[in-house]
Amino acid sequence: MRIKHLTNEDKDEISTWEYSGEYATFNYALQKDGWIDKYCCDENHYCYGARENNELIGLFMFIQKYDNEFRLLINPSCLSKGYGKLITNEALELAFKELVFSEVSLIVRQNHPVAIKLYEKLGFKRVGETTQTLNDEEMEFYKMIKSKAL
After folding, report:
1. pLDDT per residue as tens digits for the range 47-80
2. What pLDDT, in 10s, does the model give residues 7-37?
3. pTM of the complete model
């Protein structure tokens, strides 16, 4: 797997992704003015694409103004294949070694037990809850934090 800064060409490719079924709520990130538009491909945020065999299998970012908040999207054609764990591990290594963050935060939907379990296995701890409005619908999230291992 290769990790590199996300480009505008990558954003164009990502704009063709479409989630369905239980993952349909992830489409908000891809919409015009969604978090891909807001936080990718500018000098104020850290956005990366993950490629395997020349296919963009996912992306991740760290938003500094939100306590180095980690966000992750997996290509819909690559879901349930272990890429979430693989990319998150790579992202955390980059965050703590290259970007020299002392901690990384994230929010995860409370109704997404697979992601919650993954983040807990990777050392994230629940530190609170928050509600956000996505597509005019209120959603409950857990806030989680992982500190740099000493």
Report:
1. 999 999 989 999 999 998 888 999 999 999 999 9
2. 888 888 998 999 998 888 888 888 887 888 8
3. 0.90
SS3 of the chain: the string is CEEEECCHHHHHHHCCCCCCHHHHHHHHHCCCCCHHHHHCCCCCCEEEEEEECCEEEEEEEEEHHHCCEEEEEECHHHCCCCHHHHHHHHHHHHHHHHCCCCEEEEEEECCCHHHHHHHHHCCCEEEEEEEEEECCEEEEEEEEEEECCC
The one-letter amino acid code at 117 reads K
Give strand pairing partners of 111: none
| d(C-alpha 19, C-alpha 47), whole Å | 20
